[in-house]
Amino acid sequence: MGRLLRQHEFYVAVILVGFSLLVGLVNPAFFSLWNLFALLKSSAVIGIFSLGLLLVLISGEIDISFPAIGVVALYLTNLFFSGIDYEGTVLLPFLMAAGIGVLLGSINAFVIARFQLPTLIVSLGTLSAFQGFILTFVDTRIINRLSDPMIDYSRSKALSFGGEGGPVYSIHTSVLVFLLLAVVTWILLRYTTLGRGVYALGGDRQATRRAGFRIWKIETFIYLYVGFLAGIAGLIHSAHVRSGNPFDLVGTELNVLAAVVLGGARIGGGRGTVLGTVLGVLLITVMNNSLILLGIPSYWQRFVTGMVLIVAVVLPQVRHLRSPQPA
Amino acid sequence: MPPPQFLELDDIHKRFAGVHALRGVDLSIREGEVHCLAGENGSGKSTLIKVIAGVHPPEEGRVRIGGSDLDPVTPLESIRRGVQVIYQDFSLFPNLSVAENLALNNEVEQGRRIVRWSRIRATAREALARIRRELPLHRPVGELPVADRQLVAIARALLHDARLVIMDEPTTALTQREVENLFTVIENLRAEGIAILFVSHKLREVLRISERLTILRNGSKVAEGPTTDFDERSITEAMTGRSVRDEKFHYTAGPGPRPPVLEVEGLGRPPAYRGVSFRVDPGEIVGITGLLGSGRTELALGLFGLLPAREGSVRLDGQPLRIRSVEEALAAGIAYVPEDRLTEGLFLEQSIHRNIIASILPELAGRFGFLDFARARREVEEWIRDFGIATPNAEVPAQSLSGGNQQRVLLARWLARTPRVLVLNGPTVGVDVGSKEAIHQRLRALAAEGMAVLLLSDDLPEVVSNCNRVLLLREGRLAAEFDESVTEETLNAHFAETAGTAGV
After folding, report:
1. Residue A325 pLDDT more than 50?
2. Measured between CA atoms, how close is B142 to chain A, in angstroms?
3. Same-domain status, B91 and B123
4. Which of A281, A291, B280, B339 might form a disulfide with B452, Cβ 3.0–4.6 angstroms?
5. Residues near B31 by Cβ (< 8 Å), separated by ≥ 6?
6. Structural domains in chain A?
7. Which of residues 283-312 of B touch A (CB under 8 A)?
């Protein structure tokens, strides 16, 4: 029990449940299965982005270019597959989006690892450059007609029950994809030497080098992985909104950062878990979607998210400052 | 028959960009020998360690480890032969558990890709068993005290079948009792036939722990032999190359009655300290000593307004003074040189120039608040000259200086304000003998000019030879006061008593 109380995840879970109860009290519609499943679905995109950002934060850096990677991936992929009236499996578009993500991630990786620059600054540049590339060299129009496999995906369910006269409840495939990627990331971080290297890097760079890790390898992997996840998240987003909009997603980095930090990842590196991040994602999603249920105007969202982010970084710091410092 | 030689260095030369860092150094260490490498900062100790560790191949000379030439001269080869270096910063991961810190290097070295936590814990237990210590395996290393972190670093080194462990300034951040623990560990290792090369400029430790001793000065070996052939004076003279003046500081009260500079009455900030009263007359150097946790540092921070006292009163030159903030302390003329110059004192990445003028910016500001750069430059150059700070110019960052020179920069900064009261906390911790002496001389000169100096230190020889009065703090209260006839033995006896009453 004492150990549980020291876990950051425990507190996030408590806040999540507490906040949900509050919303449910004001508006019982919150606890309808339909609403809960809708929340899960809308958490998938932020969630997949978050897994990538988690790795970056653990390694001691901050990346904000991933939404732009998502936009490039979703726009080029949809442009191509709509253009050829693609009819085959949806796996191919996903493969292409992930591939584009990895490619753009490799640009980040190269600049960051080769020139040993802080990710925040590099990604400020690439965020703008990636999105600008689409707007300047490809197109600025919204793709309104997605290919059939993408439309099918947008209607797909991982699990459904009910029916036979009653309403049908279903969990969207995207939730499953998020869950799967979360498990993969968890195994990666916990059970591979590479994953432990990410933690080591965030703990002490010099010591990581002395331990025999190749830092550029760890960093390259991180940004390729971030690109991979961002490509998938971008494509899923386009399926959810059933359009390919080159102006979408950029701006969600604040939400994603808030989710990961709420989940206990430390700005400055070395700390963060997949479980915490998933809980943080759920919390941010519930907050963003429930303000309306509480009767709070939706334009409050940005303000609330900003405040939550500040509280989320201040609270652990307060605990850190209060704890006795070892001599 | 003595055990065989494990390490033999023969006529080692090393140059860096024209600097002759090592000039024909010999060094040999037998298996299971505790050998001490002493020398001032910049004498070539670090370079020599790096030669042994295979980081710097020497231009001339032979490195023999374990009976054959080190070939190729690489860190990996050196590690294979059983050489392990424990760096001053320990090279640990504060965010990872003790177990993982112990095992991670091994995992990487063996090229493992998958982590099995049962194996990690087993490796960690084995490592701790080697030094016969227990540490909480799941605790993050960052939460451990420095001494325990050091044990983690040592235990980790032993996992690599170490036969020679090199410890770079291992006692700098340790308390007296932690040093004892470390020495026990070193004794245990020696009993297992593991050789230790102990790099230090703390003479008393050198004399206690080592069997043999090598002293470097300016890249050359100037002395070598069994430790029993040396005493503190002969080591110091070999390190500095000059005979050390070992004069005791004498305070002579000026003519006529002069009011005390500083009067402290019933000062307290429970539970750290309470009821502390003392006075410092102009020209006095008053020492305050006490074990860790005696309230020594808190008292100093109280006088400087960082942790304001909650009880009692302070008078400066007879005037009552309330110190509620650093600004008030500075305005009143109290300067404080902190214990840990690296984190509390210096702007490490900033130039010497900026570090020195940091405390006198308001004075340097002319009308409209613009800085008088010409004057600032003159001031800084004066301080560099007066203090003999060894630097090519005032623009190099403070972190590029040796520890002793950094401490001089810090002193210069506070003295530039010409304070009435100078409070120093451990002013020569981690400082080499030459700088130490320079700092002590400077303090005496300042006292002679009428400044009141409060010297807080647990370096007993330093306190005894530089203070005309010594106050002993124990558990936050003044336990005893001594005049200038005090000796180390007396103080030690009182410390022993303290330890007894504290039930340790």
Report:
1. no
2. 8
3. yes
4. B280
5. B3, B4, B5, B6, B163, B193, B194, B195
6. 2-318 (1.10.3470)
7. 292
B317 assigned to some structural domain: yes
**Assigned domain for B168 exists:** yes
**CATH (domain of B434):** 3.40.50.300
How many pairs of residues across A and B have Cβ atoms under 8 Å apart?
A: 70
Judge: B100–A196 Cβ closer than 8 Å, yes or no.
yes
DSSP B344: I
Q: Model pTM?
A: 0.74
pLDDT for res A326: 40
Distance CA A162, CA A167 (A): 6
The model's confidence at residue A146, banded by pLDDT at 50, 70 and 90, is very high
For chain B, counts of helices (H) and of strands (E): 17, 20
CB A170 within 8 A of CB A37: yes
How many angstroms separate the CA atoms of B18 and A163, rounded?
86
Query: Quick one: pLDDT at residue B318?
Result: 86
Amino acid at B114: I
What is the biggest distance separating any 2 CA atoms in chain A, rounded to whole angstroms?
Answer: 69
Instruction: Select from B95, B149, B174, B177 the residue whose CB has the most chain A CBs within 10 Å, as the one to mutate to test that interface.
Output: B95
Q: What is the pLDDT of residues B51-89, one digit of tens each?
A: 998 888 898 999 999 888 888 888 888 888 999 999 888
In chain B, how many domains are there? 2
Q: Using CB atoms, which residue from B96, B115, B142 is nearest to A193?
A: B115
Name the 3-class secondary structure at B66.
Answer: coil
Specify whether B482 is located in the same domain as B428: yes
| Yes or no, beta carbons of A211 and B95 under 8 Å apart | no
How far is A180 from A280, CA to CA, in rounded Å? 17
Neighbouring residues of B68: CB distance < 8 A, sequence distance ≥ 6:
none
Residue-wise burial string across A173-183, b where 16 or more C-beta atoms lie within 10 A, e elsewhere: bbbebbbebbe
Claim to verify: residue B82 and residue B224 sit in the same structural domain: yes
Q: What are the tokens at A190?
A: 């916990």
Give the pLDDT confidence score for residue B245 in this predicted structure: 61
Q: Cα separation of A189 and B115, whole Å?
A: 10
Contact criterion met (CB < 8 Å) for A270 and B93: yes
- Taking each helix axis from N to C end, the angle separating A66-83 and A33-58, rounded to the nearest 10 degrees, works out to 120
Q: Whole-angstrom Cα distance, residue B220 to residue A222?
A: 48
Distance CA A76, CA A84 (A): 12
pLDDT in tens, B442-497: 888 888 888 889 999 888 888 888 999 999 988 888 888 888 888 877 887 777 66
Q: A235 versus B494: which is more confidently predicted? A: A235
The string of DSSP codes covering A218-284 is: HHHHHHHHHHHHHHHHHHHHHHHHTSB-TTSSTTTHHHHHHHHHHTTPPTTSS---HHHHHHHHHHH
CB contact under 8 A, B145 and A195: no
- Using CB atoms, pick whichever of B95, B96, B146 lies closest to residue A327: B146
Find residue B23's DSSP bridge partners.
B13
Measured distance CA(B110)–CA(A66) in Å, rounded? 34
Nearest Cα residue in chain B from A213: B108
Higher pLDDT, A199 or B367: A199
Whether residue B467 is contained in a domain is answered as yes
pLDDT of residue B504: 35
Structure tokens at B136: 């909480």
**Which domain does B447 fall in, by range?**
262-333+419-501
Whether residue B144 sits in one domain with residue B292? no
Say if residue A324's pLDDT is above 50.
Answer: no
